[in-house]
Amino acid sequence: MIWIIAWKNIWRNKVRSLVVILAITFGLLGGVFSSAVMKGMAEQRMKEAVSRETAHIQIHNPKYIEDNEINYTIDLESQRLAETLDTLPQVKAWSPRIRFLAMGNSANASTGIMVYGVLPEKEMAVSELWTMICDSCGTYLNGEKSNQIVIGEALAKKLNLKLRSKMVLTFQDAMGNLSGAAFRVCGIYHTNNSVFDEMNVYVSKVDIAHLLAMDPDQSQEIAIMLNEGDELDLVQKELAASFPDLLVRNWKQIDPVTGMLADFLDIYLYMFMAIILLALGFGIINTMLMVILERTRELGMLTAIGMNKRRVFLMIMLESVYLSLTGAVAGMILGYLVTLYTAWTGIDLSSLAEGFKKLGYPTMLYPYLDMKFFITLTVMVIGIGILASIFPARKALKLNPAEAVRTD
Amino acid sequence: MNIIEIRDLKKIYNDSEVAVHALNGINLAFRQGEFTAIVGPSGSGKTTLLNLLGGLDMPTEGSIRIDGINVGELSSRKLINFRLNNIGFVFQSYNLIPVLTAFENVEFIMSLQGYSKEKRKRRAIELLEAVGLGDRINSRPSRLSGGQQQRVAVARALASRPKFILADEPTANLDSVSTENLLDIMEKLNLEEKITFIFSTHDQRVVNKAHRVVKLEDGKVISDVTTQSP
């Protein structure tokens, strides 16, 4: 019966309760939607980083990472790596890459770039980069002709290159000699990360191995895509244990900025929501103190007739929790609906495009929140409701019933 | 048989700079089924005596035994439970819970005692009918007159099957018709059900109905007259 009385009590002063509930509703709406925008942004960035840039796992010769010397390679055959990767059920696809620094030159300019020599079919199963080439921007490496190159739009602009333009790469081969070759631009990709687009180019592994005087079976990098991202730790550990001489890193280690975002974003969002809830908590405390003051006589009567302290405390606490929860549920539903709507339409931030692209963020945002966030938020709201009730409830418990029943 | 025995009861308030001697050695006993009015001028100690009898305050000296239990020796937790199961309260300003109906107000105290919903329902309706409010069980206090609210308060006080009912100036806010009506109901309950009532009052109409009148002055009993034994 105390549960029902507590619920009825919060509607005694409808205007005051509605003001508090609306404050909580809009506080939560703002908090949920902002969190959804941040989470959506981060999720998109993480997905794009994995699917286009890093893959889930990369394997290198540890010495290669130290000084980028192309002779520090991985031999797929002798180390049974290919066999292992083909048999691991969690592995969706893997791609061996030759990877080296070179100078990219056009008739107008030159710049330092990272060249990836890839086997197109294997690479296309690992990286979605080929989908980032628009219909009028050519094709991915198709093996029809030798010395094809796929470059990013930002690099094309920088070097003033167009589709089918000639680009000359100069680099040091495996023997330490300066070497170079002309490549024909067969495709121009465009991702949301302009820094990535400006830096990375893709050529055929067979073509480049020959130019580098390398065995085409050798690679500097193996990129691995998994069926499920949450199997990452398991597969990484298994590979690291099977190949102790190789460096097995996950995408968070390869791209620590994005990795940190993935690891700390949830904590940051919960802290953000906790601050909002804390501010709202003070509003609830204020309201509940008013309630205690107004109902001194009634609370005195309840204690006088035999309602024990535990029940008085429970009643005050329930009123506080009901107030918080009513506002919070409304705020969360509204926040969810706004998130759902904007996730469907997207939020166009093209006016901020340049800054966003330099950081690798998309200009079209799709807010996103998972159920875990809502469940945690509900628990936090109940917690704040309980915390906010403690001070007013303690005041209620200190009332002297003999004096309280005579209060005007 | 005495259900309440008061021995050398003293109450001194030290809240202000000067100690206030509200009760100065009261010795009284109340028997089952008495209908007693405690009268006296303002400041004579009526309310203090009722507070001590109801376990809402603790005596400075002396003792109050209810059914042999020394109320002053109970811990605050046991005292609340003791009040719930042994004492009914009727207050001057009704003190009903405004968000509950008449029925729910009466039922509430039984829910604190842990009675089943069925038992609570049966007794609440029975009591509201006994105080003449059988047709207003679903009305909230704001829809009832002062007299009707005080009758709900009497029904609530009876609901927990207390050993006695303490009523602190129960007619102070009522008009003469409502006062008459309330007193008739309480007298009927006293005569038929042997419910023990102890009032503090200034109201001569209550005094006229009482079967025993205890007069206080300066915290002492100056007269104790029984006109009708239970």
Compact summary:
The complex is a heterodimer of chains A (408) and B (230). Chain A is α+β, with helices and mostly antiparallel strands and 408 residues long. Chain A contains 16 helices and 14 strands.
Structure, described:
The complex is a heterodimer of chains A (408) and B (230). Chain A is elongated and about 100 Å long. Chain A contains 16 helices and 14 strands. Helices cover 56% and strands 20% of the residues of chain A. In chain A, helix 1 crosses helix 13, helix 2 crosses helix 13 and helix 13 packs antiparallel against helix 15. Chain A has 2 domains: 194 residues, no CATH class; 184 residues, no CATH class. With 408 residues, chain A is an alpha+beta fold. Chain B is of the alpha/beta class and 230 residues long. Chain B has one domain: P-loop containing nucleotide triphosphate hydrolases (Rossmann fold, 3-Layer(aba) Sandwich). Chain B contains 7 helices and 10 strands. In chain B, helix 3 packs parallel to helix 5. Chains A and B meet through helix 1 and helix 12 of A and helix 2 and helix 3 of B.
Features:
heterodimer; A: 408 residues; alpha+beta; two-stranded antiparallel sheet; 16 helices; B: 230 residues; alpha/beta; Rossmann fold; 6-stranded mixed sheet; 4-stranded antiparallel sheet; 10 strands; globular
> Could you tell me the mean pLDDT of chain B?
90
Specify the CATH homologous superfamily of chain B.
Answer: P-loop containing nucleotide triphosphate hydrolases
Instruction: Output the structural class of chain A.
Output: alpha+beta
Number of DSSP helices of chain A? 16
Q: Which residues of chain B form runs of ≥5 with pLDDT under 50? A: none
Rg of chain B from C-alpha positions?
A: 17 Å
User: How many whole angstroms does the radius of gyration of chain A measure?
Assistant: 31 Å
Largest interface, with Cβ-Cβ < 8 Å? A-B, 23 and 28 residues
Widest sheet, order of strands of chain B: 6-7-8-3-9-10
Question: Roughly how many Å apart are the termini of chain B?
Answer: 10 Å
CATH architecture of chain B: 3-Layer(aba) Sandwich
Number of strands of chain A: 14
Number of domains of chain A: 2
Oligomeric form of this entry?
heterodimer
Largest sheet of chain B: 6 strands, mixed
Helix content of chain B: 25-40%
